Amino acid sequence: MIKEAVEKAIINQIKNEEHSSRLYLSMASWCQVKGYSGAAAFLYKQTDEERMHQLKFVHYLNDRAGYSKLLALDNPTAEYKSLLDVFEKVMAHEEFITASINELYEVAITNKDYTTGSFLQWFITEQIEEESTMHGILDQMRLAGNVSGGLFLIDKELSAKAAAKVVAPLAAE
Q1: 19 near 76, Cβ under 8 Å?
Q2: Listed residue (100, 127, 130, 104) closest to 117, CA to CA
Q3: Is 160 among the domain residues?
Q4: Are the beta carbons of 10 and 71 closer than 8 angstroms?
Q5: Residue 173 lies inside a defined structural domain of this protein
Q6: How many distinct structural domains can be found in the chain?
Q7: How far is CA 23 from the centre of its chain?
C-alpha cells in the first residue's frame, strides 16, 4: 500500500506529464504550420515520449494499490514568436519537470517509500538527458543566429533527431 502523500505527489506528476504531452503537441502543430517540419517531427516524438512517461506513473501507482486519478489541465500555449521561442519554452518546461520529479523524490524519501525512490531514478536520469538535448538545440540555434539558412539546417537536424528517437513501448521500459 502506498502512502497518501506519495500517492498525491504521483497524481500531480501524472498531471505534469500529461500537460507536457499536450504542450509539445501544441508546439509541434505550430512548427508544422510555420514550415518547420523537422522541429514538428521532433516535438511530435516528444509528445509520444511524455505520454509514455505519464503511463509509467499511472501503471506504477495502480500497481502499488494506489489510484491514478486524472486532474484537470490548463490549455497549453498555442502561439510562439519564433522557433527559438518554442525551444526556450521547451527548456523552461523541462527544468520545471526536473524540479517536479525532484520534489516527488523528496516526498518519497521523506515518507520512507524507498520503492518509489528507486522507481524515480529512471526519471531523474531521463531528465538529465532531456535537459542536455534541449541545451544542445538551443546552443545551435543561438550560434546560427540570423545567418541565412541557419534555421533550415537546424530544422533538418531536428528531423534527423526525430527519426533516430525511439519511443519505447511501455512494457519494454
Answers
A1: yes
A2: 104
A3: yes
A4: no
A5: no
A6: 1
A7: 9
Whichever domain contains 142, its CATH number is: 1.20.1260.10
> Where in the sequence is the domain holding 28, given as residue range(s)?
4-70+81-166
Residue 171 lies in a domain: no
Asked if residues 50 and 170 have their Cβ atoms less than 8 Å apart, the reply is: no
Give the cell for residue 118. Answer: 528507486
C-alpha cell at 143: 550560434
Helix, strand or coil for residue 165? coil
Q: pLDDT value at position 147?
A: 65
pTM here?
Answer: 0.90
Judge whether 172 lies within some domain.
no
**Residue 173 clears pLDDT 50, i.e. is over it:** no
Instruction: Tell me the three cell numbers of residue 163.
Output: 527519426
State phi, psi for 81 to the nearest 5 degrees.
-80, -35
